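## Example pair
The file below holds two records. Each record gives the amino-acid sequence first, followed by its structure token line.
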Amino acid sequence: MSYTFDRATQPDAVQQHFDLFLQHTTEGVWDWVDLDAQEQWWSPRFYELLGYCDQEIESSLDTFERLLHSEDAVQTMLGLRSALENTSRFEHNFRLRVKGGLYRWFRGQAQVLRDSSGQAVRLTGSLSDIHERILLQTELEGTRLQAFRARELQQSFLAMMSHEIRTPLSAILGFAEILSDSSEDEETISAANTIHTNGQYLLDTFNDFVDLSRIEEGRFDLKLQDCCPLTVIENVKSVALRKADPKGLALNVDLDHSLPTSIQSNPIRLRQILLNLMGVVINYTHEGTINLSVRKSDAVPSDQQMVFTIRNSGNGLNIEPINQIFAGRQLADLTSLTYPGGVGLSLSLARHLVRLLGGEITLQHETNSASIVEFTINTGTSCDIKPQQLSLSQRIREHKTSRSSFGMLRQPCRILLVEDGIYNQRLIQYLLTKAGGSVTLAENGQQAVDQLGAALQSKTDINEQFDLILMDIQMPLLDGYSATELIREMGFNNPIIALTANVMPGDREKCLQAGCNEYLSKPLDRKRLIQTINNLLKSRRKRILQLK
């Protein structure tokens, strides 16, 4: 039986307005007048949403419960009872079986009417069809989940490739340097330099690819800091000379005398921009001179931007594809790009980094076919921008990074090297022994823990056994994270340096959290390694003296 309003008890105008409302609303209306009975009133639109004609099926609580999907019935009915027993409003999403047997998603809402004592006496509400919205949300959630899984898979792949590429490159570059430094035969030195140049090119290309992936995913963290642009330029000049000399190219650097001695930027990324652009220009210049000039911007306010201009002579670069990259075209769209190797990656990354540093980048030709690559960066407003009336050579010397002896350990040092790769074992052992260290090898984290554990059992102070530990991270049996944590628990307080090919975002922080004092990445920078060891041992000596 279906409940209907008693029209005789309602003024005609009110009834007319109510009927008009029911005709035009997209929601179904329901009314449960007698809470002690099963009978309810459903509006014609309520029936229509379920696929039925008006009053084609019984409008009751029992009917509603039978139409509910089995997975939604319990929670929906509990929600109704909770609304009646408490002061809460009924508001639920659920599936109802419509005519024909299919289920659709609906949203039910209702307000409880109570008497003066707070007792529920009536429940009036509405029913909305939300089926398409739920399907769309489900589809979007599925798409987001797929995208998340794809990103996770990409990150896992990049992390694996980073480790697999950096580990052998560490040995290749390291032994190439040793061969070049120790040999007196010109052909051997030339061959070693060729190996090193091409190995470094492979590493740079891979690093560019990883950085571009991080930028495109919005996970690229660019921190600004006070830094000296002259130091960055000097470093870039020394690296660029090593590339230009074999081709017989001259390299000139011209710095404006009013350049700031300190700017607010990111020195690592500024160096990366310059090296990428200089590398491309050197690759495509076969004779003549390459000029790098740096000045303050002519724009107003001029103290907040620097301009870097790279000119080559003799032959120009292919301007169209490069400008497409600088304009933001995807590499996959650059079908006319004829540059080999990672040139496209280098240019695209340089463009992104320039914009992240607040500037723009352009390429143009001069009339003599020479090319001009020019970019700007912001310098900030809190930096030292006082003009310096010094010659270029004086200013470069003044801002050189301290080059105190990096090649030797400043004190006898007992080092435990934990490394599973045989070629990197040989390389690091050779470098540390030559620098004056005494090296003990452990081929994985478990061997390192066992060696220190044996010292404890023999009542030997493990802090007297080794002055420092070099810890690889990805190893069989027991990885570097777990080994470091166990070694710290055993009471080892001396420095531990993570020396690893894991260079993805968060890897450094994970190493420090495990108990490492420092983090160095592969391929190995031998000067930085020796410098880091010297600094940590110096800090350790200071702590010991303070305790005494």
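Second record, same layout:
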Amino acid sequence: MDISTASQFLLLPAGALAVTAVARGRGWSAPLLLVVAGLVASFVPGMPSYALDPEIVLSVFLPPMLYSAALDSSYLRLRAVKQVVGLLAVGLVLFNTVVIGLIAHALIPRLPLAAAFALGAIVAPTDAVSAIAVGRKLGLPRKSITILVGEGLFNDATALTAYRVAVAAAVAGTAADLFGAGAEFLYSAGAGIVIGLAIAYVVAALLRRLSDSLIANGISLLVPYGAYIAAEAVHASGVISVVIAGIYLGHQMSRTSYGTRILSGAVWKVADLVLESIVFALIGLQVRPILMGLADENLTRVGVYAVVLFLLAVVLRALWVPITVYAPRLIRRVREREARAPAWRNVVLTSWAGMRGVVSLAAAFGLPEDFPQRNLVLFLTFAVVIGTLIVQGLSFPWLIRRLGVSNDAERYSDDLAEAAAQQAASAAALARLEELIADGVLDVHEEVVEQLRSRAERTALRGWERLGGGTGLDGAETPSTAYRRLRREMLTAQREVFVRLRDERRIDDEVLHRVMQELDFEEATLERS
């Protein structure tokens, strides 16, 4: 690789990180600014051509991004909304594929029906990265965030399966085999789940036994690629395999060493930042090569096609989401005579969070060269992706503020649950300290015991305060050594209580992560001292 090629290779991530730094510094949405910056940069004279290679996107960028999102998600919260997530990740994707395909075929007669269905599958999956980032920052309720996360994790698998079937039919010039497609999806999903669980189970057992946090996180970096490659090798869904592995390991992360957890958070935050910056910049940079492929097209007519498909993608989601959210509750209300309907504001926000992303573009660029109307499909995909990112992405924060949605009640409930859990955990820590003293572990230095007791009591009070209602040479063990040893025992007892309360659904995963981080940093401080 010569110096010129190397500089071009580094220009993309360096420029993307620079734009991201500006966005984060000013409190803007980094994905949206990256897309706009890429759009502008693609027309700058002398700008290198950065082609979006679908194989690199799907096998290099996508696995760690999905894995990181799954690792940070909550298995218990996802399980609570599994019906809604399933209807969005499978039902909405298929609904989009069929309806967009039929309308695209009617709108563009020269686009064969199978090719139109492929277009529908390409633009069907959402990428809620920017919506989730904005929603968390502005206080979108946790359940809405969980639904968006679950949909974003699983809908790629449905879309890519429908895409493969439609592309094969379009290239062969035959009708799509719906029965075969259904069987392929069931095998792909089922095998992906089994492979993801098998890999995650082995890795979780290994991570629990590793005290070296660097090695543990080195192994963790290999998991998404291992899960993806293993599943794809047997023609299963690599996407589902990666997601399942991430969800399982995220649920088990509280049982690994404190060093592994602290380093894991930093490692995946950096990986997310770099990968997402490059991916969203790449989306914007594709405008020039895509427009060059439309040299023989009537741009006015093509522009009309693009606007119609963009509006269709927005409207179909707005129609499907209320049905998905309200229909199960209506059935439950009839059966159980009681069911709380979700706030209509949350339903509106979920309906509007339909931004498309890099998976759609990667699928479009992966179309065979002999695919019917390939350049037109590429442009229409790009128009839907950019349209949803800019129109919905820019208006999403305004809509949250306009509707007055917040998670204040959830945060108060979390603080209350955390305070109660802190008190229970501190009681367990004090009980463990008394056991150690009774066993003769500590013969001297009563002040150390008092310090430990005082610290446990202060920890128990800290949660209530958040709510506003709180008021040697001879070879012998030194006081500081005893303090560190005993405090580690107490921290272990506290962690066990928090994990048990999380598993019993008495505190949420976010509460567990928050208190675990506090305990981990304290243990790290003990280790450093």
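Notes on the second record: The mean pLDDT is 84. The radius of gyration is 26 Å.
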